[in-house]
Amino acid sequence: MDQDRPVESPVEEQPTLREKAYESFTRHLLARDVRPGQFVSQRRLVELTGLTLGAIRELVPRLEAEGLIKTVPQRGLQIAHIDLNLIREAFQLRVFLEKEAVALFTQSAPDQAIARLLKEHREILEAIQGGNDSRELELHAQAVDWGMHDAFIDALGNTIISNVYRVNSIKMRLIRQERFRIDGRVGPVMSEHLKVLEAIERRSVEEAVAALVAHINHARDRAIRL
């Protein structure tokens, strides 16, 4: 029956070819189908994304503006190279954005949201203490890690900041893939997160900000050392 058919989204809500190309590119980038520093042609991006050359040509200026690729004369498009300068800048931006975000989150987050984050982290630490060192736990811990930081940014309710943070998050994930991962460090990372969350639970803005900055700086230092 007609009433059982799914309602189609209005045309204006459908993603444009440019958006589809962007989503496809970033998905392949994070899946390591293309690697930092690698040179690619527009036609290679067409093959990778399955979209048109026109869509790729519209996409390139956005990727250049976001620092995800750069055009090198005579050679083509180069995927962002992970170097010390990128690492320092990406982590510095994280500190600027997340300090304000965690301060607001500490003041305004519902008790149940804080309780949920604490529960997720404590369950992971309990699993580690129980001898669980599985790949599944590491993947779950990574998702919980990203989820906590995303929750802080979401608390700002600022689309401009969210967009800037999203682009920086892509760079952060590339840095993690190239320089370090959560693998083998689940316990220390979750413990650092707990310090932040316990300060939030106490509604101590100063302690939460200090614990978060220490956590981000520890990650930055590991990336730079490697």
Automatic annotation (TrEMBL):
Keywords: DNA-binding, Transcription, Transcription regulation. GO terms for molecular function: DNA binding; DNA-binding transcription factor activity. It holds the Pfam family FCD. SMART domains: FCD. It comes from the Bacteria. InterPro entries: GntR_C, TF_FadR/GntR_C, Tscrpt_reg_HTH_GntR, WH-like_DNA-bd_sf, WH_DNA-bd_sf. Residues 15-82 form the HTH gntR-type domain. This is Transcriptional regulator, GntR family.
